[in-house]
Amino acid sequence: MHSSRMDTPNPFAPRGGKAEIEEGRAFAPKFDADGLIPALAMDATTREPLMLAYMNAESLRRTLEIGEAVYWSRSRKEYWHKGATSGHIQRIVEIRTDCDQDALVLLVEQIGAGACHTGRGSCFYRRVVPQTAAESAKLEFADTELTFDPEKVYGKPPVG
Amino acid sequence: MHSSRMDTPNPFAPRGGKAEIEEGRAFAPKFDADGLIPALAMDATTREPLMLAYMNAESLRRTLEIGEAVYWSRSRKEYWHKGATSGHIQRIVEIRTDCDQDALVLLVEQIGAGACHTGRGSCFYRRVVPQTAAESAKLEFADTELTFDPEKVYGKPPVG
Question: What's chain B look like in SS3?
Fold first, then answer.
């Protein structure tokens, strides 16, 4: 059994038929083969996308229970109560799910200086410049400003 | 070899060290074990989240080339030029990637009546109501309005 789904059974509704999943009121999130569902956190006020992370059933249940984002860290293989280290908690304003219930959008109030462990407000601080005949695709900074010093906030290594 | 990465080699930069990935200008997207990266499409003007889908390296390359969203359909195992059937094309305004380059946000101009095959403007038309001591978590419609008739646009079965 995969470590991300060991803790507790899935507390959500069983997956029904297509009509029920798409048009129903039962919350039956679909977790992937690793027991995870992607969750994109957006600032509820500015609508800035902040980060994309993953939840397992138990971290989603905890998120709903405490009203703060709790992810599953795939690299550390542990629960990740965002802000537990940095103070940069994400208060849940609303959680949306999509038609087939295999993705989440978290509308959050981002507490503190920012969501990104690099010291920026958002993890999405670079835009992709398309390839041309002469050059491959590259990145351009949309936001270079650090809103906090990651070493002061996280020490090392950065852990959310 | 997985079907989603059969077509062409990855045309993007090789993955470098952490500093290069996080602070560099080389675009080195990280594809998962299935060769996919999640992409959240948002309306560039209203900032409404529209849908979350996946791209493989070739669909990302095509997206950058033509300036319209081309996903990889995990269920149909084929390229999915969004709007090819429905006319509901997503014109790319900007693509952002995150600190570790394993997720994308597409800021798009959604052409036509909507992004969702159910007939709605956005796939994220329901919010999650947290569980209580007495009841499990359930869904509530944030948006019930159909902006188009999916049968007229897609026929059957709906294919994006």
Answer: CCHHHCCCCCCCCCCCCHHHHHHCCECCCCCCCCCCEEEEEEECCCCCEEEEEEECHHHHHHHHHHCECEEEECCCCEEEECCCCCCCCEEEEEEEECCCCCCEEEEEEECCCCCCCCCCCCCCCEEEECCCCCCCCEEEECCCCCCCCHHHHHCCCCCC
